[in-house]
Amino acid sequence: LLGNFTENQRRLLYLVACYTKPSVLDMDKSEWIRREALVVLIYEGIVGGDPESRKAAVLEYDYAPSSQLVEGRRVWINMPHEGISDTEYLCEEGLLQILKMASTTHSSITAYQVTDKGQQIVDRLSKLDKGPVNELVYAPGTRNLLSVRWHMDESKTDGTGGSFQLFETHESDGIRLPDGYRYTSSITECEDVSYVSSAYIPLCLRQGGRPTLSNAHRAHESASGDMQIKDVLDEIITVNSVSIIVSEFIPFGANNMVTTNQNLGSQERVQGGLFTPAVEGEKVATKMYIKPGMTKVDILDYAMSSHVNFEAEINEPESKGIVQVEQFGISLNASGACYYGMQLEAVQERIRDGISLDQLSRVLVDVQSDSSVVVDTIVTKRQLDLERLIFRDDEENRCKVKLVVANEIVPHLLAEEYMDKGEYENELRQVIGDTKTAYDISEHDVLIFGDEGLMLVGPNSRHHEPLLCSYLEVLNIDIFTRSFYQRLFLEVDTIRALKGQVFAADSDPNTLPRTRREMAAINVNLTMLEEVLGYMHESLEHVQVPPEPPESTGRQLYARLDIPTTKRELGNRIHDLRKIIKGAFHEFSILKEVATSAQDERWFRLNEQIESNTKAMCLLQDNNARAADSLRLMQISLGGLLAFAFLDRLTGEWTVMDSKWFESTANALVYDSPGLWFIFSCLAWAGAASFLLLLLRRYAHLSKGTVFVRLKVNQPILLEQLQRYIARKNIEDETHRVVDGNHVIKVTWREAQPGDWGGFAPKIELEFDDATAYLLTTTISYNRRQARKYLAFNSEELTLQLFEEMQKGEVFADPKYMPTTRQDPKLFAFGASDEGAA
């Protein structure tokens, strides 16, 4: 069996076996290796591991840059397609098994594990196979495996947002060793090549204007440039006269299209110009300082509300020795279809023909990255906000569809021969991703589909531009719909998570304030998603399916692309998304109700607590009032006792019992009837106590029956007149509060003339803003029981009395202002009955 597998496959099998282990008992956990980690380890096996101590290559594979999803972000990595192909072959042979698992970001996770059959082969491998792999996967001098993790680093400016790190883990439990061996993988460092390109826009997208310019006369310049590819490339397939179209869907619409044309200066005398992604503030200054890296734009043709076609020449600084003349044509349409086209004039020393797919894959990285920078510079801020929402702040690396059109492919084979699950298919994967199918649409033309785009090669390939552009337009919406679907369900997951937090709000007092902030963000996101869904629906309706071509090659291509079916299925999916987003809004409304209910419940409990505390305070206040009355009576009584004691000191031992006029009475009450004087003493004690209790009740009765009248006025006043009015009062309290430019003053006094107020002088409080000259509130505290019985004022009379005084003092800017206490909803009057206070 060992002879049936190549050295690369045997070493790859052993590498997977080092990281995986099937479960033996039901309670055991099986161990799997993630696809991302396996890709990093395969790449490290190709380049020789740690950059500071490179070893001999463990695996002999090619690699090419590919956009992969890593922890929710798109990252360019050097993908070893041949290694992944061998992994799939081992799975087909039953030596490895694949695990598919859903993630919280609604994307699929792939993992691998060695099977029992594969383990049997691993046990029979020689040291010649195991030795190099052991040096790769184990920390130097130990039996501790190196684990792979993605390290986020927002400070990186290369667009990756992080790097893959390999670090040493403990042999027994797999826990990371803090001081262990580690290094950073170079898998995210994409390699550049030198090339010269010209702008390319299919004729079906043009509407007049001059033709695009050619840089064919500069093709020789790329031969003088360097190439950063470190590996020795196995060139299996080459193409001649290559045109590249990278396309995507961006939410546009007619108004955004008009703004884009204005940004480009399409109607100006000098159209286009230099554009930079840098953002300058609104401050006016003499000079502006811009870093190198600008794009020159030349308008070809435009219609203000429907489209614009222009050439873009990228002038980004390149690595030392790299020569890149990068110019491509851009076609932006109000339907959201965006095309970025390039005609390759030369790559390295190869002029126009003989361009390998390894080199072409490096060129495609530049086209995809630079096209995002250019278009994001000229579109509106609203469109950028929508892109950031859909792609989760990773809009610079958003996925695009690639179309490669070539006049000839070498070697020219039948379509099925390219799908050999070997070297031909691995070469094609470098350009269009994992290959799906291939068709012969004529004797000389081949159509190949991949999950990242498609390739059409042959002498008649450029005759079918209308069909290809329509297919790209539908495919762009399809890819955008997938991203939209994931983003929408992330919002739904957030809503459900918040709902769970609200139900457990009692455990964290900050839950409800935090939930309200997140709910505001969710509401904005759902509104923007609904807007994007409208753009998607309009764009799909705008797609025009070209008629079926009359020639056989065109009919074959029309049948293979099957644009009407794809468009119909997309319509069903967008209709389904409408239902999902409607359900998301419904769940959001439920979340709002739950949050409101939780807030109301919290307020209810708080009000109950406040009410309970208020009752306790009122009870305490009553007790304090009774204690104060009792203390006052005790003070009076003690004063009397002190006066009598003082008189006793003046009279000495004199007592009425020694008086002759009281002698007969004393004998009758005290000496002749001993119990009678005790009874008389008790009666005197009862009389005095009754008098004191009645007096205390009287005081308690008079302390209640208070009327509070609080009026929200919010009327302009004359500050000088108000100051004169207040100056006539005996101010008891004055407070000042300065907040956000407002100077709020609160003054309190008690009226000096009780007769003007029915026999009791009320306590009045005015609150006004000295900065804006507005009277804010008035408060009157009035005890009706201490007023004259038939002259006591009610709440309306108190209000009228106060405002008539202020009218006489000309306090209000409107001299006729008078609140209507029966109709004015701003008046809150609280009265007291004879049973208690309000």
How are the SSEs placed, and which strands pair?
Layout (H helix, E strand, L loop, with lengths): L6 H13 L13 E2 H13 L16 E7 L2 E7 L1 H12 L3 E7 L5 E7 L1 H8 L3 H11 L8 E7 L9 E7 L13 E3 L10 E5 L38 E12 L4 H11 L8 E3 L18 E10 L3 E9 L8 E10 L3 E11 L2 E2 L3 E2 H22 L2 H10 L10 E10 L4 H4 L4 H10 L2 E6 L5 E5 L2 E5 L7 H39 L7 H32 L9 H10 L1 H89 L11 H9 L2 H30 L2 E11 L2 H9 L3 E9 L2 E9 L12 E7 L4 E10 L11 H14 L18 E4 L8
Parallel strand pairs: 9-14, 18-21
Antiparallel strand pairs: 1-5, 2-3, 4-5, 6-7, 7-8, 9-15, 10-15, 10-17, 10-18, 11-12, 12-13, 13-14, 14-15, 15-16, 19-20, 20-21, 22-26, 22-27, 23-24, 24-25, 25-26
Task: Please characterize this protein's 3D structure.
- By secondary structure, this protein is of the alpha+beta class.
- The protein is 41% helix and 22% strand.
- The protein has 18 helices and 27 strands.
- The strands form five sheets. Strands 9, 10, 11, 12, 13, 14, 15, 16, 17, 18, 19, 20 and 21 form a 13-stranded mixed beta sheet that branches. It has a six-stranded antiparallel beta sheet with strand order 23-24-25-26-22-27, covered by helices on one side.
- The longest helix has 89 residues, at 563-651.
- The chain is elongated and about 155 Å long.
- It starts with 6 loop residues before the first helix and ends in an 8-residue tail after the last strand.
